[in-house]
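Summary for the steering committee. One of the milestones for this cycle was to obtain a three-dimensional model of the protein with coenzyme A bound, which we needed before selecting residues for the alanine scan. The sequence and ligand used are listed below.
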Amino acid sequence: MKHTALYAGSFDPITNGHLNIIERASSMFDFITVGIILNRSKTPLLTLEERLDIVRNVTAHIPNVRVDHFEGLLADYVNRNGFDAVIRGLRATSDFEYEIQMAQMNARLYTGNTETIFLMTDPRYSFISSSLIKEVVSFGGDVTGLLPEYALQVIRSKMK
Ligand code: COA
């Protein structure tokens, strides 16, 4: 039986922290779906199409990764697709409280045996978030090594 996992997020933009989680998860599962959420509570810099394009581009070297998008409850998307696991990255202890709340609420909503699996974020990326990167880029700061070059080019051109 093939084992599948979902890695969901806004990816506005995807960072090297996200990419590191995707690469590690891809060796643990047969297929990983990167699910880009159309999150109405956040105002993204990048359109859904731009985020899909960037994520596809920067994960093209990982053969068992596919990229999709969804709206609404994560658990509904998981139930429709029957993922065996949902991958989450933990950056710091401060992430834990929110993550456990979300994992336990989602566990009530899953109709199958989906597990939430936490991977510790690589320490090189434990301090970053998409918003922090956008803020630094908007003031011309150096974010070398924190996100894929292609993603950086797109956000720079959007900010012009
Ligand atoms: N490396 C670098 N940055 C990381 C990271 C990593 N490994 N992991 C997370 N981040 C960043 C993200 O880029 C994000 O930055 P931002 O807030 O500046 O955009 C921040 O940390 C928070 O990440 P995350 O919690 O994954 O937020 P998200 O918006 O990317 O995704 C969902 C959150 C989609 C998983 C969540 O909102 C969801 O499930 N929504 C669906 C609605 C739902 O089901 N709600 C009920 C839940 S019980």
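Key point for the committee: The pocket of coenzyme A is lined by residues 8-10, 12, 15, 17-18, 21, 37, 39, 73-75, 89, 91, 102, 105-106, 121, 125, 128-131 (CB under 6 Å).
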